[in-house]
Specification:
mainly alpha; 295 residues; DNA polymerase, domain 1; 2 domains; three-stranded antiparallel sheet; Tyrosine_recombinase_XerCD; hpI Integrase, Chain A; 3 strands
């Protein structure tokens, strides 16, 4: 782009950021939607308001070769927002980019395996973090952002702030988790954060990558071959509570799900559900009389 074109692009980009803020988008969404505009501009080296439908098709076809569908959906949504609010144009070719509908069933640890993972974790701060994620049903970011003000020992509740969709929720605080949090705090004594970084007087929480690396190592040490991430501990929390008889509505509230349908997916992960299905299948096949061929 020449100087004039660059100035025009910078103006559009600033308007895009302003519109994102005015529409109340969350910081993570603003970052993703802004990156979508920067990426396509860099790809063609020209302002995105000059792009044709053919250009857009070319861009997304190229993006599919190098990026995940989650990234492609974010770019599509970001450009759709840019067209609507900054360019005041209709997004008429939405069907051109249509990510496949994929529903994965997550791997789940048993209660015994969760205990093993926590007990085999070598560093106390990671041990406490893992039991906190599991016993409170937290997302990774929710756990990392916990502060001392979120822990209410008088009511034995934890205030989970700014969860997915900007929603707060209250979750029960188990006695064992409170004890673990206290023991860890006595070591770092941070004025605000429950899980601070290692640097003295840091204002930042514990490193996300460090948490993931620690869990990966302990899974290897425990010889657990399942695809488990820190978020899997939240899946385990939900599944194990259902196995104990907790109703779906209560679980929905604990997890902070907007839709009960999202929560209902955990029912297929429970041992009770799997046992019932297995029993039904066996009862069905037991009704079949088979005379096996000798050959």
């Amino acid at each position: 782009m020449n100087t004039s074109q660059a100035q025009h692009y910078n103006y559009l980009y600033e308007q895009h950021l302003i519109n994102l803020s005015l529409q109340g988008k969350r910081p993570s969404t603003i970052d993703a939607y802004a990156r979508a505009v920067r990426r396509i501009t860099a790809f063609f080296d020209k302002a995105p308001d000059t792009l044709t439908t053919a250009d857009l098709k070319q861009y997304f076809n190229s993006l599919i070769q190098t990026h995940s569908w989650s990234t492609i959906k974010l770019d599509r949504n970001g450009l759709q927002f840019f067209y609507r609010y900054t360019l005041d144009k209709q997004w008429e070719w939405l069907s051109i980019v249509k990510p496949p509908q994929v529903k994965r069933i997550p791997d789940i640890l048993t209660v015994k395996q969760v205990s093993e993972v926590i007990n085999q974790t070598k560093q106390l701060r990671y041990q406490v973090f893992f039991i906190t994620l599991y016993s409170l049903g937290l997302r990774l970011s929710e756990g990392l952002n916990l502060t001392i003000h979120d822990i209410d020992k008088s009511t034995m509740l934890v205030h989970v702030r700014d969860g997915k969709g900007g929603k707060d929720r209250m979750v029960p605080l188990p006695e064992q988790t409170l004890l673990a949090l206290r023991n860890d705090w006595k070591i770092h004594r941070h004025a605000r954060l429950i899980f601070p970084g290692l640097q003295v007087n840091t204002k930042n929480h514990m490193d996300k990558g460090g948490v993931q690396k620690a869990l990966k190592k302990v899974l290897h040490d425990c010889r657990i071959k399942k695809f488990i991430s820190p978020h899997s501990l939240r899946h385990c929390y939900a599944t194990h509570l259902l196995e104990q008889g907790l109703d779906l509505r209560s679980l929905q509230q604990l997890l902070g799900h907007a839709s009960l349908n999202t929560t209902a997916r955990y029912t297929q992960l429970t041992k009770v559900k799997q046992r019932d299905m297995s029993r039904a299948v066996n009862q069905l096949t037991d009704k079949i009389t088979i005379i096996w061929s000798i050959k």
